[in-house]
Design goal:
Largest sheet: 2 strands, antiparallel
Number of strands: 2
Order of helices and strands: HHHHEEHHHHHH
Shape: rod-shaped
Strand order of the largest sheet: 1-2
Structural class: mainly alpha
Length: 278
């Protein structure tokens, strides 16, 4: 039973090592200055506000232009030549003026331009604050994840050591199971920190609406870590061989496939010592 518990613990803990390898691709970072420049250049809301300023400037120019003059021509002819009524041609050139209306239109257009510029500046400050907070939150979640990852690795090594001690008969089964459960709880905390890290990075990406790929790890997030990883599938296939095989056969397969000679050697020495005692 001790040997089977050791094998189960090693297989169970070995599956959790996958996340540290898959997260190596997530360590790519971008500088804050480059990030803010991307926000300014690629954010669609900010681009729309700048377009409103351009439209307001065009309206100011249009308000300063005088209206076009109107020209009209009239021609009259008497069809009866015997009456000698003659012919007539009239030409009219007109232009309408509204006293005070043009200056009022220019003032209105200029005030709308100032309003658009003020809204643009306000949107810019708000966007920069939100993007900066998202960037800092991502840094905080990254550091928190590293702390929890380091804590989990320590607890995982302790659980592996306790499983070996239990196989050698140095500790009780309860202590070994407790270490295993503590490692599982630490792993759950680590996965929660990883989820929060993904969410913070997704929030940071919301500040940038672009059509090109950024060197941010959002596209590299593993959706199913334990199903898509080669090492995880290898461990899963090995764990499926436990049913119907003897302990020696399982240790031989695990020694050959997972490359853990230290654990296998310890179990073999424990088996020989138990055989001598019997």
């Amino acid at each position: 039973m001790k040997k089977s518990f050791l094998i189960t613990t090693i297989l169970w803990l070995d599956c959790f090592v996958v996340h540290s390898q898959t997260l190596e691709a997530m360590q790519q970072t971008i500088d804050y200055r480059i990030y803010i420049e991307w926000v300014w250049q690629q954010n669609l809301g900010y681009a729309a506000e700048k377009l409103n300023v351009s439209v307001a400037e065009a309206e100011v120019k249009a308000a300063r232009i005088f209206n076009d003059p109107a020209i009209s021509m009239e021609y009259a002819d008497n069809d009866d030549h015997r009456m000698q009524m003659g012919r007539s041609v009239s030409v009219e050139l007109s232009r309408s003026f509204s006293l005070g209306k043009r200056s009022a239109g220019i003032g209105l257009a200029e005030s709308e331009k100032e309003l658009a510029e003020a809204l643009l500046e306000d949107y810019f400050h708000t966007l920069r604050v939100e993007a900066s907070l998202a960037y800092l939150e991502t840094i905080r979640q990254s550091e928190l994840y590293r702390v929890k990852e380091s804590s989990y690795e320590s607890i995982r090594r302790l659980a592996e050591g306790d499983s070996i001690k239990y196989a050698l008969g140095k500790i009780t089964y309860t202590d070994a199971v407790q270490s295993k459960l503590e490692a599982g709880m630490a792993y759950n905390d680590l996965m929660q920190a990883q989820t929060e890290l993904y969410n913070s990075r997704a929030t940071a990406l919301k500040s940038i609406l672009i059509g090109k790929v950024l060197p941010l790890p959002y596209e590299k997030i593993p959706i199913r870590v334990f199903c898509r990883s080669r090492r995880s599938s290898r461990t899963k296939s090995l764990s499926s061989l436990i049913i119907g095989y003897s302990i020696d056969r399982i240790m031989h397969l695990y020694h050959r496939r997972s490359g853990l000679p230290r654990y296998a050697s310890v179990c073999q020495r424990a088996r020989r010592s138990n055989a001598r005692s019997l």
